[in-house]
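Me: I keep going back and forth on a fold encoding question. No explanation is needed for now; the record alone will do.

Assistant:
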Amino acid sequence: MKAVPHLDDLVGSVVPLSRDRVTSIGRDADLSFPGNNFLHRRLIDIYWRDDGWWIENVGAWIPVRYCAAAEALSSILDVGQAMRLSSRVTHLVFRAGGTEYEVVVRIPDHREHRRTESVGLSPGTSTLGPGSLTLEQLAMLVAFCEPLLLAPGVGIDRIRSMRAVEDRLGWSSAKLRRKLDNLCGKLATAGVAGLVSETGVPATNRRIALLEWALATRIISTDSVRLLDLSTVNGPLHPRRDGEDQ
């Protein structure tokens, strides 16, 4: 199956795709998940059109999350919507009743548009963006987003809590809040929306706005998780100097 486009349910079922017919996913479909009456008989159709592969949500009430394998931020394919696939590997995640399903669409012969990563992962390397991000700032973003980076297709609601990030990085609560305040202020000054309210105080949902920006702009990616494995992240990265921005 590796040589042809196919669907993979990640637990042993593989269904080839054909340009001559529509392939479906659902309770009673080509790739079938029987036994769950909350799942549509046909939820997703995959077909070839206009020199490309398309996915379409043909259900009545179940949204489908999708994302390319190289991306962490998922999007929603609403009921009745269709989308042309632009990646060799696309994750589809949907929930019916209390059960969540994941299907991968693999298109080996589809030319993927490659993008240049913007993050340098070596210690001491800064990343260009709105200003420059330090290694600690990047590590903080990755720590918040690690659940999304490790499981493509999940929603932004899976980001870590402040307490969990403190534990992951070995930082105090005061240090994490200071780092978050400084980064949000720097990015807000550079024009990133949603980080500061109209009154100038931190926005209520600024963490979500910050992490959506980081994922959508590829400031961090799945490769960035190795930042958390650098021994320097769990201790002082640089000696503090008087007047240095912490």
Summary: The CA atoms of residues 183 and 224 lie 18 Å apart.
